[in-house]
Amino acid sequence: MHCPFCQHADTQVLDTRVSEEGDSIRRRRRCPECDKRFTTYERIELVLPTIVKKDGSRQEYERPKLNASLMLALRKRPVSAEAIEAAVVRIEEKLLGLGVREVVSQRLGELVMRELKKLDKIAYIRFASVYRSFEDVDEFADLIKEVRPLRRAKRERGSSKE
């Protein structure tokens, strides 16, 4: 490791510690040339797959873009920032778990829809209506029917407990 102060090519490690989360290593170093001390961190570099768009073009995965899509669907909905962040993390974990270098955008869209369906049904319908590019009202109605029985079943279970 080069010294950031004098650019000397060799530095000594004085102390090594694993972070509390266990996801990084902190090293305290000293330069034998200028005697300055500095800290370095070692972290795992996770590379998410490239997204292959419908037109065949490729884009690097961008977390802010995914976050913006979720936020747009969830606009004015009662979902916490923590829940949204957790959904983004789950989507990224699934992408990493695929173990591939490229993922078609449709697969990413399906992962987003699955998370939105868990978070908020209205946001799910908003996203799906744009994502699936419905051609007519019947397709939209089918999507609503897909979500509605879940709510009706919950209501019926709640009334049977009385």
Entry summary:
The chain is of the alpha+beta class and 162 residues long. The chain has 5 helices and 6 strands; from the N terminus they run E-E-E-E-E-H-H-E-H-H-H.
Low-confidence stretches: none
> How many alpha or pi helices?
5
Mean pLDDT: 86
Give the total of domains: 2
Describe the global form.
Answer: elongated
Strand content: 15-25%
Going by helix content, strand content and strand pairing, the class is alpha+beta
Strand order in space, largest sheet: 1-2-3
> How much is the radius of gyration in Å?
24 Å
Spatial gap, N to C terminus: 69 Å
What share of residues is helical? 40-55%
Topology order in helix (H) and strand (E) letters: EEEEEHHEHHH
Largest sheet features:
3 strands, antiparallel
Q: Report the strand count.
A: 6
Structure description:
The protein has 162 residues and is α+β, with helices and mostly antiparallel strands. It folds into 2 domains: 12-43, no CATH class; 50-151. 49% of the residues lie in helices and 18% in strands. The protein contains 5 helices and 6 strands. The strands form 2 sheets. The chain has a 3-stranded antiparallel beta sheet with strand order 1-2-3, with no helix packed on it. It has a 3-stranded mixed beta sheet with strand order 5-4-6. Strand 1 (12-18) and strand 2 form a beta hairpin. It starts with 11 loop residues before the first strand and ends with a helix. The relative contact order is 0.09.
